[in-house]
Amino acid sequence: MVNDLADPRPVYIIDARDRIVFVNPAWSRFMAPARGHGPGLSEVLGRPIWNRIPEGVVRQLWELLYARVRAAGGSVFVPTRADRVDERRLIDIELTPLADGSIRHVCEPVWSEARPAVALLDPAYPRDERSLRCCMWCRRIQVRLGAWEEIEDAQQTLAIAAESSLPRLEPGACSTCKQSLLKTFPARVA
């Protein structure tokens, strides 16, 4: 963990009971919104990773990933989008099992690009009773059954204007990302 403190890449570790036991300074900066602060250490350390991962298929896929990484004993890379309001970001998360059952996560930035601010991604924007399913791996939005689009395109397709309130983004997994993960780790996921 000494080297992880100085690592410029975001690093965090969960223990064998899936509690977050370490985050480095780069992780805190990475988790911060474009103009703000990330979660405080007291909100993260010692708490289950499941407090940060929603119920349903998203959690099932992460549980599967963790079980397979621990069983296989080798590192695995999981590509994911980690977009901000005004920036697209792609990262590879390297999951490495440790001898005590812990898993080390290293977030390797692959690319990022600026974009006009997207109100749907702004956690400070007021939300109403409507909801949209958002893939937690590619950040696309489900516009109809089986059809997912980039958030800007989905906003146009669904005629969503930045009004006094916007729909909530419900975490999900598009069929492309779900199949990609299941091919890496074949198993049953609802």
How does this structure look, described?
It is a single chain. With 190 residues, this protein is an alpha+beta fold. The protein is built from six helices and nine strands; from the N terminus they run αββαααββββββαβα. The chain has one domain: PAS domain (Beta-Lactamase), CATH 3.30.450.20. Helix content is 26%, strand content 32%. A five-stranded antiparallel sheet has the order 2-1-5-4-3. Strands 6-9 form a two-stranded parallel ribbon. A two-stranded antiparallel ribbon has the order 7-8. β7 and β8 form a beta hairpin. The radius of gyration is 17 Å and the shape is globular. The termini are far apart. InterPro entries: PAS, PAS-like_dom_sf.
Topology summary:
Blueprint: H1 2-6, E1 11-14, E2 20-23, H2 25-31, H3 41-44, H4 57-72, E3 76-81, E4 87-97, E5 103-114, E6 127-135, E7 141-144, E8 147-149, H5 151-157, E9 166-172, H6 175-184
Parallel strand pairs: 6-9
Antiparallel strand pairs: 1-2, 1-5, 3-4, 4-5, 7-8
Short synopsis of the structure:
The chain is an alpha+beta fold. Helices cover 26% and strands 32% of the residues. The protein is built from six helices and nine strands, in the order H-E-E-H-H-H-E-E-E-E-E-E-H-E-H.
Structural features:
190 residues, alpha+beta, Beta-Lactamase, five-stranded antiparallel β-sheet, two-stranded parallel ribbon, 6 helices, 9 strands
